[in-house]
Amino acid sequence: MSLRHKVRSCILLGLTALLFVTTGLSTASAEPSRPQEERPFIMPFAGPPGPDTWFFLQAYGNTTFAYRFRNNVYYGGQGLHFGLDLAAPCGTPVRAIGDGVVFSVDSWHGAGPHNLLINHPNGYASFYGHLLIRSRMKVGQKVVAGEVVALSGDPDLTCISRPHIHLEIRDSKTHAIGYNPLNLIEADWERLALIGSEPIRFEMDMENPRSWTDLFEQPETRFGYPLVNDYASPWPFDW
Asked: pTM, whole model, 2 decimals?
């Protein structure tokens, strides 16, 4: 083989290798950064988010707000914000997030002035709190996903102070375990978190700073158990 042919062969081999590497990088970058698992539930509000419709208010888990009130408001939930808060004007229709059966109306579970608890056949239960009026649903009544089951309200009974719904997902057997709704409700949560009223922030344990600081990686709540976030070195600092 002549020198010219050898040079041409080397160039072709080099271009082939470069094309292979580039294609591999393109394929890798096209893959989602977070595995997308099927989420069984829908949003409790219809229509797009916005300043005059609804928006993401507070996440589930070890939020800075929950940490601040871990010894009183959130003590029964191990110091965690054991639900998801979505701001909405009073009277906004609240939809069932899945098919199910009404378990209770205005029960002792809190989140007044009114609440609703629905059991779902997949082993979960959804709890809707801070409702405007008592739900028209009856215990034992069947509901379907998307059906309007309540109206959003304000825990301060003013409809101007902090109107929102508090949404929890628990186990349907004991209602004693709380799960992160963001992992179970189909929505673009990263984008929703960017257009809320303020940044979604989580309390940091400076002795283990990577723990529980992600929207999706939050601990389950065991109601009635001791605090899980009574940190010796918290940040933001606990005054």
From this structure: 0.84
User: From CA 44, how far away is CA 94, in angstroms rounded?
Assistant: 5
Count CA atoms within 13 Å of residue 67 on its CB side.
Answer: 24
Q: Over range 41-65, report the average pLDDT.
A: 96
Q: Give the count of domains, the chain.
A: 1
Give the pLDDT confidence of 212-236 residue by residue, as tens digits: 999 999 999 999 999 999 999 999 9
Who wins on pLDDT, 160 or 23?
160
- Both tokens of 126, joined, read 């959804």
- Residue of 106, 84, 90, 112 whose CA lies nearest to 182: 84
Give domain status of residue 75, yes or no: yes
What Å distances lie between residue 185 and 79, 85, 134, 141, 196, CA to CA? 23, 13, 24, 23, 17
- pLDDT at res. 3: 39
Q: What DSSP element (H or E) covers 19?
A: helix 3-30
Tokens representing 178 are 């709380």
The CATH number linked to 66 is 2.70.70.10
Query: Is the residue at 30 inside a domain?
Result: no
Closest C-alpha among 186, 191, 169, 165 to residue 178? 169
> What number of H helices and E strands is found in the chain?
3, 13
